[in-house]
Amino acid sequence: xxxxxxxxxxxxxxxxxxxxxxxxxxxxxxxxxxxxxxxxxxxxxxxxxxxxxxxxxxxxxxxxxxxxxxxxxxxxxxxxxxxxxxxxxxxxxxxxxxxxxxxxxxxxxxxxxxxxxxxxxxxxxxxxxxxxxxxxxxxxxxxxxxxxxxxxxxxx
Length: 156
Hints:
This protein is of the alpha/beta class and 156 residues long. It has one domain (8-154): Rossmann fold (3-Layer(aba) Sandwich), CATH 3.40.50. Helix content is 35%, strand content 19%. A 4-stranded parallel beta sheet has the order 2-1-3-4, with helices on both faces. The protein has a two-stranded antiparallel ribbon with strand order 5-6. The chain is globular and about 45 Å long. The two termini are 17 Å apart.
């Protein structure tokens, strides 16, 4: 499968107050690698509260603002449920899936949803099972606390 370079839109819906400092720290940490690139990646940061579970009208406006993005990162899924959303219920999770599909259709971008496991990590992501059913790919990220080494595992 081939890939294409393109604009990334990072929706920082959680930890908004620190996201700009974290972005600057990442740029400093990877400065040498970024300098070696012929064309550094274009990453737009949107740090705000979002409610992707309440209505497609807001999602359509968001999609229009994203324009030609190739990758949309929603961090974190739980932070975009909205005030009344409950990730353990089908209506909320199906509304999130509908919103993600709307973003994909409107922009042609890949959507990446950052989500957490429950207390029992062996049971996978928390929340209603309709989310996993709707995913094309699920990648589990774990870090060994003793070694500091991370591991990625494709679970779907």
